[in-house]
Amino acid sequence: MTRRSFQRAGEAERRQNLVNATLESISDHGLEGATVRDIAARAGVTGGLIRHYFDGKDQMVQEAYREMLATMTQTAIQAMGAEEGEASDRLRRFIIANLSPPIADPKALSLWAAFISRVRTDEEFGKIHRENYLVILSTVEHMVASLLSQHGSRGENRNARELAIAINGLIDGLWLEASLAGDLFDETRLPDIALTAVEALLGGISLSRNNSREEAQ
């Protein structure tokens, strides 16, 4: 029993190493330039071993896309802190995390740009994209609904979904700015712009940002 569990853990680790190697290869060479041979070399395995874990390059690339999105999303969610915390604090931390490293990062942008063209042409890519988008949207919607309720706007909870869509779109746009031209701004500039805009969308509900510099680090 112990040996079998150890072997399963070893296989999971090797599979994860292959996914990580796929991301590295795509980051360096793009989707077309990332070859199975290069991925195998980066992972320190043979091409034959890769076929034990994946049907081929397409499946490896799909799993790499899933891994990239999941890592970014979980990083932002973990930055929010405990679920029982104040919704305003959690939303503020979520926004700042999305516009700060390691989420806002030139390498992350390069990977996103390589993958995004597949979303409309590859059914599995589209499914992965939608699943992750709905996780983010649900997370933001829950925080927005809590904020509206806490500020006596229970009748406006029907707008939480629309507000979440708008907030997510705002974050996406500023994420591109932070990842593509982050050197033009100090570390709190884009998060502060986002927080001000989100406060306006929320009808003036404050997302206190006295600690935005510390949270961005």
From TrEMBL:
<feature type="domain" description="HTH tetR-type">
    <location>
        <begin position="12"/>
        <end position="72"/>
    </location>
</feature>
<dbReference type="Pfam" id="PF13977">
    <property type="entry name" value="TetR_C_6"/>
</dbReference>
<protein>
    <submittedName>
        <fullName>TetR family transcriptional regulator</fullName>
    </submittedName>
</protein>
<dbReference type="InterPro" id="IPR036271">
    <property type="entry name" value="Tet_transcr_reg_TetR-rel_C_sf"/>
</dbReference>
<keyword id="KW-0678">Repressor</keyword>
<feature type="DNA-binding region" description="H-T-H motif">
    <location>
        <begin position="35"/>
        <end position="54"/>
    </location>
</feature>
<dbReference type="InterPro" id="IPR009057">
    <property type="entry name" value="Homeodomain-like_sf"/>
</dbReference>
<dbReference type="GO" id="GO:0003700">
    <property type="term" value="F:DNA-binding transcription factor activity"/>
</dbReference>
<dbReference type="InterPro" id="IPR001647">
    <property type="entry name" value="HTH_TetR"/>
</dbReference>
<dbReference type="InterPro" id="IPR023772">
    <property type="entry name" value="DNA-bd_HTH_TetR-type_CS"/>
</dbReference>
<keyword id="KW-0238">DNA-binding</keyword>
<keyword id="KW-0805">Transcription regulation</keyword>
<dbReference type="InterPro" id="IPR050109">
    <property type="entry name" value="HTH-type_TetR-like_transc_reg"/>
</dbReference>
<keyword id="KW-0804">Transcription</keyword>
<dbReference type="InterPro" id="IPR039538">
    <property type="entry name" value="BetI_C"/>
</dbReference>
<dbReference type="Pfam" id="PF00440">
    <property type="entry name" value="TetR_N"/>
</dbReference>
<dbReference type="GO" id="GO:0000976">
    <property type="term" value="F:transcription cis-regulatory region binding"/>
</dbReference>
